[in-house]
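Handoff note, outgoing to incoming analyst
You'll be picking up this chain. Sequence as last confirmed:
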Amino acid sequence: MATSHAPSVADRRVLLLLLDDQDRLMLCGGCCAGWTVPQTLLAADADFKGGAAQYLAERFRISKPRFGSIYGVHETRESDCWEHDQRTVSRVFIVRISAEESESFQGMSPSHTRWKISELRTHHRDVSPEGVALLVSGYVEGWLPDGPISL
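Most recent structure output, in case you need it:
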């Protein structure tokens, strides 16, 4: 019996690691029994950095984002998608924000918080997606090279 396999549509998303002047990572809580970074889905034809900038402007009123020199890249292989027929293609951008933008983020919701690197190390298993704490630590401490990092 022949089976047809329709080409999968990619779930395209941007995850944003917002770091303030004190190297605190902005985290959203209140769902999923843990902490996560801000993220948004993108249209199939949207540019990752352009989509990130648009989301930052609309959601957090950050009109001129200062993107870090390191960014994460994740893309599932077709063979990994057999169960859900859903590929994921993601970019994880580090964005430097001002003290005022950090305060604004904190004030948006009681479920928002800001963690320093020491707190991320202690609670790294409570933060999703996995690897965020390591990526932020490597960026802040300067031991990751500039450019894309495969996740």
